[in-house]
Structures are given as C-alpha cells and as structure tokens.
Amino acid sequence: MKNQGIIVKVSGPLVVAKGLAGTDMYELVRVGTLGLFGEVIEIRGERFSIQVYEETGGIGPGEPVVPTSAPLTVELGPGLVTSIFDGIQRPLDRLRVKFGDFVIRGAEAAPLDRTKKWHFIPLKKAGDKVVRGDIIGTIPETPIIEYRVMVPPGYEGTLREISEKEATLEEPVAMVNTSEGEKAITLLQKWPVRTPRPVKKRLIPCAPLVTGQRVLDTLFPIAKGGTACVPGPFGSGKTVVQHQLAKWADADLIVYVGCGERGNEMTDVLIEFPELIDPRSGRPLIERTILVANTSNMPVAAREASVFTGITMAEYYRDMGYSVALMADSTSRWAEAMREMSGRLEEMPGEEGYPAYLASRLASFYERAGRVICEGSDDREGSLSVIGAVSPPGGDLSEPVVQATLRVVKVFWGLDDKLAGQRHFPAINWLASYSLYQELVDRYCTEKIDQYWAKNRREAMAVLKREAELEELVRLVGMDALSIQDRLLLEAAKMIREDFLHQNAYDPVDTYTSFPKQFKLLQLILGFYHVSYQAITVGVELEDILKLPVRNEIPRAKFIPEGQIDKIEALRQRMKAAIDALKPSGENS
Amino acid sequence: MRKEYLTVENIVGPLMLVQEVSGVSFAEIAEIILPDGGIRHGQVLEINEDKALVQVFEGTSGLTPGEVRVKFLGKGLQLGLSRDIVGRMFNGFGRVIDGGPPIIPEKYSDVNGVPINPEARDYPNEFIQTGISTIDVLNTLVRGQKLPIFSGSGLPHSRLAAQIARQAKVLKTGEQFAVVFAAMGITFEEAQFFMNEFEKTGALERAVLFINLANDPPIERIAVPRMALTAAEYLAYELGMHILVILTDMTNYCEALREISAARKEVPSRRGYPGYLYTDLSMIYERAGRIKGKSGSITQMPILTMPEDDKTHPIPDLTGYITEGQILLSRMLHNEGIYPPVDVLPSLSRLKDKGIGKGKTREDHAGVMNQLYAAYAKGKAAKEIAVVLGESALTPLDIMYVKFSEQFEKEFIGQGEGENRDIIASLTIGWKLLGMLPATELKRVKQEFIDEYYPSKQL
Ligand SMILES: Nc1ncnc2c1ncn2[C@@H]1O[C@H](COP(=O)(O)OP(=O)(O)OP(=O)(O)O)[C@@H](O)[C@H]1O
Ligand SMILES: [Mg+2]
C-alpha cells in the first residue's frame, strides 16, 4: 500500500496534495472523501499537483488523496463498438440508466459490460506457439466488426487450452504456458492512454482514405494512416466535414471524439448513425463507430484526457489489422484544456498563454497515426488516420494551435469564412489548402481509376488559380478587359466550383461521391472547357455555347446516383455534340 | 454556530484573502459581515492550506481588513425553487426584489448546474414561430436551441428580443410557456422597457426575472445567468414547461469575468479575457436543450453587444463557437430605418433544417429560404459592382436583382414592431418578392412549388 496523501490546495480542476511520496507521475488517484478520479500531473518536492476529472466544488484541504498504483487506462474488449463514452471512458449510456439524465459527480460504471456473453471462435489450437499480438480467435462484435482476440504482452508461450465458447469479458478463453507459468487470456485488456501501443514496423502510407467528399478526394486527399487538420472560424463547417468523414470514409472503424464541443452534435450522431447505412457493408454506420463525448460543459481535465482515450481505442482496432480513422472535434478545445491546467500550475506561459509543450503534445498525438505492420506473427497491416478540427480565435490562422498543428500534419483543409458566407460548402479554400499525399494518391488513382486522374486534377487547380488572377484584374479594370478565352475560363472555373467542389452534405445523393464518379464529373466539366475552347477558336460565340440547353444538365450531373454514372459519360458526349454543332461546317471534329 | 473569521489579510479588486481558515472548501459561499451589520456575499475561488481567496459579489469597496468578519456557509451557491418563482423578480443573487413575499422553496439547487448526459439529449427540431420573417423563414429557431443576437451599442436588440418573447409560440397549442429573463449590467431604462413590454402583454405573470442593473455590483453578474438557468431547468425539466431564456447583455457578463481574472493576475488569452472564457460560456450556453422523455425545453437567446461591431472580438467569437448559429444586427439597415435590422447574410440558424418543411412549416420552405438568400446575396453583390463600376456595368438581369434586394429589405426584413407575421404570411411575402424575378431564375426551388406558389402576374 502506498501512502495516503492529504489535500492542501484546491483551485478549480487542480488539486495539490502532500504526503504522496511513492506515487508516480501520471498515476491515477482518488481525491477527497467523494473519491473523485484525478491524475498526478506535476511533482514538486512534496507537493503533488493533480488534475481532477470532475467538479471540485465542496472539496477542501484536509481531505484524503488515495493512490491507485495505476496510470489512467482504458478498457479494451468487445463492446466498445457502438458505445459512447466520456473523456475518461465512462459509458454514457449505462451512466444514464444508473444515474439519470445528468452526468452527476461521482457517477461510476465500468466502461464495458461485465455480464454480457460473447461468442468466442478460436483460430488457434492447443499446442500452438503464440507471440505477442497473435490473433487467437474472433468474436462477432457487431455484424460488421469482427473482434480479434490478441495475445497481450507477457503472454507469449504455448497454448494449453482453447475452445469455442460463450464467455464474459472476465472469463478465460485460452490458457497459455508462459515462461512465468500458466496464464489465462480473457477478453478484457487494459492499456494506459498516454502510452502509444507498440507496433512491429511503421510504413509509409500507400492508399487514399476515400471520403466521398469531392474537394477532399480529388484536390486534397488524405492517405490511410495519414494526418489532416481542418481549421476554420465558427460556422465554417468543421463539424460537418468531420461528420461526413465519420459517415463515408472507407475505414473499417471510426472513432469520433467530440472534445469540448456541443452536446447536440453528439446527439445528432447518436440519432443519425443507427439509421444511416454504410454503403460498403449495407449495415448501419453505428456498427463500425465508437464515440467519445466530452462536451464543452463537461469537466476540462476529462476533456484533456478524451483524445488519448479515443486514440488508444483506435490503436487497439488498428492492431487487429483494421484501417481505423479517428476524428477529433476540436483539438483547440483540447489545447485550451491544457492551457487551463498549465495556468493553474503557474507554469511559464508560451504564446497566448499556451504551455511551452503545446507543440510537442500535439505532435505526439498526431504521431500515433500511421500505417503499420502490427505485432503478431502474421505481419498483418493496420492503419490509423487522424483528422483534427482546429478552432482558431477569430479565424486567425497565425495562432499557436493552428501553427503547431500545421507543423505535424500532412494535409491542411483550410475553411474559409467568406466561402461559408456565400454558402459554398464544404467551405474549403482551394487556393490555401494542400495535401502532401497528392503524389501517392495520384499514382494510386492513375492506376486504379483512370490514367487521366492526375492530369485532370492539375488542370482543375490551374483553372482555379487562373480564375483568382483574372478576378483581381476584373476588379481593377472591369470585365471588358478580358479576352473571350479568359471569359470561357471563368465559366469553367465557376462550373468547377459550383458543380464539382460544392457538395451538399444533406442531400441523399450528393452527400457521397465515389472516386469513379468524381473522375467522371470533373472529366465532364473539363470536357466542356476543352470543346468550348476549340469552338471559340474557330469563331463560335461564347454566348451561344452558354445558351445551349445541354449546359443546364451539367449542374444536375452530381445528383446522378452512383449506380448510373454511365449517364455522366453519355451527357459528356451529348454536350460535345451540341457544341460541335455550333461550329461552322467543315470545322467539326 | 459557524466560525467567523476576522482574518482578512488583503483586498485586491473584487477579491479578498482570508487567512487561518480551516474546514473551508472550494466554491463555498461566504457571508461577509460589515461593522454596521451589513452583509455581502462571496465565493471561494481558491483554497490553499489555510488561505481562502474569496470573490465578493457585491464588490469590496468600503471593506477594511480587520474590520469585516467572514463566515463560510458550508455550501455552494444555491437558488431556492418552487412553482411560485413564476411571475417574480429577483436580484442577481436570487433575492426577491419586487416587494412581494419571499419564496418558500421546495428545493435548493446548486446554480452551476450539472451537464446533461449527451445520451439523454433529444435533438431540437420543433419550429418556434417568432412572427419575424427573417427569423422564421431564413434563420428558423427551434425548441431547445441556443441562438444569440449579435448586436452593437445603440441597435434595437432589446426591442427585437422583447418582440420575440411576446410573439414566440409553437404551432401546437395547450403547452405551458414561460420566459426567464436575466439582465446583466443593462440600464434601468432598458430593464424598464422589458418590464413594461412584459406587463403590457400579460407576459409578466409567466416570467421569472433576474435583474442586475448597470449600477448594481458588477461581480454579481457572474451569478446572474446561472441563477436564471437554474430556474429555467427547474421549470423545464421538473415542471414540464417550455422556457425561453433571454440573457442580456453577455458582454457585461464577460467583462465581470475579466475583472476577476485580472485581479487574480492570470495569464490572459486574447484582449485580456481569461483563457477559460470558452469553457465558462459553454457552461451557460450548453444549458439549453431538450431531454428525452421530458416534456419541457430550454431555448436560449443570449444578447451581446459586439465591441466596435467586431464579430471576431473574443465575446462574439467564443459565443459563436458554442451556440447553434447567430442573428446579426446591421448598423447600416438600422440607419436606413429598417426594423428589425437583421443582417441576413451572416446570420445563420444551424438547426433550421430540422425544424422546417412539410408537417412543420410548409413544403416549399427550404426552397424559398435558399432562393431568397441567394437572390438577396446576388442583388447586394450587383449593387456593390454598380458602386465601383457604375450602373452601366449591370445587365438587365442584374438590375432586377438590385431592385429585388432593395424591396426585400423594405418588405421582408422590415416589419412593424407590433407586427406578428405567421409563417404562411412570411412565406407569402417571400413569394411575392421572388415574383420580381423571372421564374427561370428560381433554381433553388423545385418546379412543383414554382407552379404552385409563383405569383402568376409579374409585379
Ligand atoms: N457540406 C455542407 N453542406 C451543407 N451545409 C453545410 C455544409 N457544411 C457546413 N454547412 C452549414 O454550415 C453550418 C455550420 O457548420 P459546422 O457546424 O460544421 O461549423 P463549425 O465549423 O463546426 O463551427 P463551430 O466551430 O462553431 O463548431 C451547418 O450547420 C450547415 O448549415
Ligand atoms: Mg463545430
């Protein structure tokens, strides 16, 4: 038993205690007579600073602090998928059953249900040698997610007993003879949230994470195992982007962390996801989703923990060999939680009051993303992609959280207040955003989708860049200064913006676009540009082209359902024929 | 008998350090007893060994160390609640100030509230008709939403809020509705204006008022919205009433918070406001909502005046990051004599889509909304071009849009302060204005609705 300490100071979520000698940094402790959970975050001589995960009103000096001898851990086991947890993995659904509609202080429930029986199907047999990370059996956790039971660290050896059975989390499903004697493997495992789970090898990402969002996939793609950030002022569409990714990204499993944001947004997910159907599996999206909700009005220390809780669960499924994607909305609120604790610790502040270690903390979070060879003898591959929203004050991208984030992530989706004001959604600024995975995705898509994928993308970007230059010119001297070619280019740019980049998240068809359809749509618009360009070169009036009825069909093309994308190609042919028909005879190609 | 301490060591701004205390806990409430017997109230902001840092709600002026006695009450800040609070007026500290009898509480609740379990929330989707076209058609308010008014000094936000409080109703009948009104640092005149408004319409009988005026203690403003929301939660979740909470002016609230933070010498974030302003505000705004299985609801309409009309100032900025949209008022429209001067383009109700359409308002609502918005944006843009390059730069179609936008400001945005337009009336005005444009221009409305609602004769 370690020493019990006593509280000497309480300042909001920070409690300082003495008499805890022997307690470790980041050890979990129980604070006060109420036994609230807290974590040691600084040790200065005999003063131990503790961040407390619940409200500290009514707690005072003299009350006890009891060490638990363990760091903050999460429970890992079947039952995580479809669940919703708070920042320290309390199960919100079961808390509600036990304690009612409000998250009252001191409410406790085990993260995973101890009574539920799971059907264990062995993949190994007695006598097999197993090493850390080996999959010894599976459980149908949800109709889409096959839970894979892995050998935990320290359980290497020879299987003595393993059989198909119904087991609760705590009942052994296999016995192993290890060098330290016989050990039982149960379905329940634990892992400290601040320690990344080990992998055998890290790899460079090689495939895109398909999001179904045209501006992302075509212009600024993210790779499976990659990192991205979505900064933007309030109301610019960060949460909608994150929700869209959670809905449509082609990951096997989604971990969605609502970190210091609105309660209603989590409710939205809870209501929608059981009803929305995953286009790949045909099953409700919730069956591949884990939710972490520590809303803005829930305790800030638990908010600080929430992203680690989320990413540890995500890593666990990655280790099973899945491609996992984690969304954190918003990392700024997480950084603010750190700032608040740092301020109370009276640490030397860095920029705007953020602690000096802001950048390194952010980096260590995003570094947990990646494509990896998982532990275990089968060398299976897993990936974890991380997408963080950033909420800069006043939309000012020069602030510390955005800047520190940009130094580590590979994709920048910059949301623009002006575009949002024009209701151009997703309001991603195509001139400022970038993806460092572009080349790899170009290569992938050139091979898998179409040889012109990269060429089209480059041309679309070039048209948009030129549009910006021309607009500047128009502002200075008016439309009259433009050549007919320039005016055609402006039309093409407008079509790229309105008929391709603009995507309505709330339209049942428009909400998701596959890669092949994205390609066809862009091909259609660029086709219009090319054919028209030829036509005006041989004397066709631009106005006559713009008046063609077939042109009104182009904006409708994005609403053509996935199953009928041949219609887009047919439209392209019709469009070409109609424009060619305007040419003086003899010029038809 | 609780111990009284004579050990006030120092007094800095609204804060007081009391020495040699024991058994005091964080967030505990204290009574400060003056030599003349007067009593002020404080709350423990930090307790370090035997030293308690106390914020004094009524301010510290006139307090002298060694002369005042401090008594810690062993509990947090609470409000006494019963059905009888409806129709009554309280000060910022929850004491009756209308001259009536004291409330005999059925229960006491801690004013800080407890977060709603996100699992327990029900999504806001019930249309509230405010009778104001720019809100009902373009920025629809739904029950359980938090939708602030971003205003500027001198703009008629109070009149707008009072009109909303007076007119707001859901299209269902027979439900209990009440207003909880929290005034923070507003002038006597403004407060009186609200009171008269409520009185005129009989709303006073179903209102609960918490009043802290400009000349009342500033630090008390930190307690006011918490008191108001505690009352609202009681009425909504325990008595099943639908509550509209008006909080005005949140800018004064934030300034009180800044004052405390400065006195504590905390490292400030932007413009001197504390780094935890976001969290603090969210503890207020997130207390709007609906809960599954409960009939009541809390809809919030905070009002704030943007310093220098600047939307990126930390107060509107952090508010916008928490609320579900915002109604912006425009000084330009106001100067042109248009009431209510709602700046349509930057205003947004994020929950609008869930509250409109067939069965809620009318089937063409979404289309009309998008079309009016787009057409007005286009008209305004054309007008700007005309300013730079002259009228001649406009096409005949552009000119139609300019005319549309001018008429839109007069007839759609503008309406009488006593004018309560039902949603059908608002949509009808919308269609009448859309009639100024050729039907082929109405790309955001479905053809079937154009066939049904587009005015047959051009105006
Ligand atoms: N792709 C989209 N399609 C349609 N509407 C959208 C889209 N993206 C955003 N919007 C609109 O913008 C509003 C604000 O978006 P969102 O809630 O994602 O903003 P945010 O950046 O997360 O803001 P905050 O920082 O305040 O949380 C939405 O309610 C919706 O009306
Ligand atoms: Mg958001």
Brief digest:
The complex is a heterodimer of chains A (589) and B (459). With 589 residues, chain A is α+β, with helices and mostly antiparallel strands.
Number of helices of chain B: 13
Derived structural class of chain A: alpha+beta
Total number of strands of chain B: 22
CATH superfamily of the largest domain in chain A: P-loop containing nucleotide triphosphate hydrolases
How many β-strand stretches of chain A?
26
Helix content of chain A: 25-40%
- Overall pLDDT metric of chain B: 93
Overall structural domain count of chain B = 3
Can you tell me about this structure?
Chain A has 589 residues and is α+β, with helices and mostly antiparallel strands. In chain A, strands 8, 18, 19, 20, 21, 22, 23, 24, 25 and 26 form a ten-stranded mixed beta sheet that branches. In chain A, strands 1-2-5-4-3-6 form a six-stranded antiparallel β-barrel. Chain B folds into three domains: 4-76, Elongation Factor Tu (Ef-tu), domain 3, CATH 2.40.30.20; 79-353, Rossmann fold, CATH 3.40.50.12240; 365-458, no CATH class. In chain B, the strands form four sheets. In chain B, strands 9, 11, 14, 16, 17, 18, 19, 20, 21 and 22 form a ten-stranded mixed beta sheet that branches. In chain B, helix 2 (157-167) runs parallel beside helix 3, helix 10 packs across helix 12 and helix 11 runs antiparallel to helix 12 (423-434). Chain B is elongated, with a radius of gyration of 25 Å. The interface between A and B is large, with 64 and 71 residues. The structure holds adenosine-5'-triphosphate and magnesium ion. The site of magnesium ion has 4 residues of chain A, from helix 3.
